[in-house]
User: Fold this.
Amino acid sequence: MRKIPFSVQILLGLVLGVALGFLARANDLSWLASTLDTVGGLFVQLLKLAVPPLVFTAIVVSVVSLRGVANAARLAVKTLLWFGITALIAVSVGIGLGLLTNPGKGVTLDVSGAAAPKKTGSWTDFLTGIVPTNPVGAFVEGNVLQIVFLALVVGAAALLVGQAAEPFVEFNRSVLSIVQKALWWVIRLAPIGTLGLIGHAVASYGWDLLAPLAKFTTAVYVGCAIVLFVVYPVLLVAAGRLNPLRFFAGAWPAIELAFVSRSSVGTMPVTQRSVERLGVPREYASFAVPFGATTKMDGCAAIYPALAAIFVAQVFGVDLGVGDYLLIAFVSVVGSAATAGLTGAIVMLTLTLSTLGLPLAGAGLLLAIDPILDMIRTATNVAGQALVPTIVAAREGTLDRAAYDSAGTRARVEPDPAEPAERPARSDELSPVPA
Assistant:
């Protein structure tokens, strides 16, 4: 299998999964459907298992690494600014597409049985949910937002303490390397995980459930495709004077893995490696990519909530005004951290619906097809997480243009973690980024 390109392995898993899914559905083979569900579920569970230590150690190390970066505060501000700019553009695409396609009009669904999801989002999540009552509980529960908060605080404290904190920082570097090594093993299982995830989705839903939601599903995929292949290339050319084809050639392994894994955080090591191969300085990439993997969600937090809110409003017969659309944009730009890099965007959707005063039960109508939608949403998320540091580095004059132009010839999904480039940079080895 190692002789077969990883992208081909993914494609084979996708095709075989669809075939097995249809076989299970057509012949009512419950054992096959259950097996596919187990295989896909185990793959996602393995990715989630690595999330708490990966996020914490990656952010701690990345914050401390800023010690050797000139104008680190300016880089952080510009990164956040571009996160907001791209999110605003993405949500505008979602709103515009929703108004153009009217995904909820003419849809006949039984809304009487729809129930609100168990996990819902609210604005208090950013006040009470971000600070854990028990730091251990944040890791046990896998609350990524709280883990990010703890990591930022600990990383900032270690940065200010200086040399005395070096043993602790070195420990985090070691744990990060170990987790990344283990995560590569999980990533190599992606073809099998793809088979299970796609097969179970086809066996469970087929076309029966997709039929009434076909317009909405198509709108989500088209919206993400517009952002991926129109908006991002335009930004690369206009803001960074960069060739979009080279960007996609370098970032494609991460985008591809995100599509099948449905986890921005699980894809983070591949994303960071892709960004570094695009010529972004490692010391800056080690900060921007982990931070983006937990907060930068153009697919899950911008395009999808906008289209879903319009869909739910139309299904329930609620008219939305200009103020409501502005509110959707505001929620998408400010509230994206609620998604926290995990599979699914239900928390962000319920936050949007509750802010607009729409029935939370509307989110229940879309739960069944969420795995299908989540693939393209996550791919869009990860592409945006690679795009922003690339543009910022280009505008700061720190992007290695030669590496960028040759990124496509060196990009691959299955890098060897033992390579020197995989090791997180030490703060005392970093060359300052010029102003």
The CA atoms of residues 219 and 280 lie 33 Å apart. Residues 30-65 form the longest helix (36 residues). Residues 413-435 have pLDDT under 50 and may be disordered.
